Amino acid sequence: xxxxxxxxxxxxxxxxxxxxxxxxxxxxxxxxxxxxxxxxxxxxxxxxxxxxxxxxxxxxxxxxxxxxxxxxxxxxxxxxxxxxxxxxxxxxxxxxxxxxxxxxxxxxxxxxxxxxxxxxxxxxxxxxxxxxxxx
Length: 135
What we know:
This protein is mainly alpha-helical and 135 residues long. It is built from five helices and no strands. The chain starts with a helix and ends in a 13-residue tail after the last helix.
């Protein structure tokens, strides 16, 4: 009975220490550990609808999107003081993401993906609250 109580106490103290270390990490770099599953699901679902993915492609692309979004958040936090370095790291991440997409998508899907990316780059963002508009 004493050994069970001692083992339980030891386990509880280790769990408490691990929890404290994890909280320190979140305070140090907020948002890096948990990426919003809704954000990943929305991006992947949108790509699925546009590119007509099969189930295997959807699963693989979802994981690639999860990694991309997590890394994007990390880069934005890590290089917030250096916009030039941040842009370079984001461009590098995008290149890696395109390579991963080329492994997942068929050539026709990849062509559609590139066309959509070019359209998104050329279309200017609309003001959120009609600032700068007439009226």
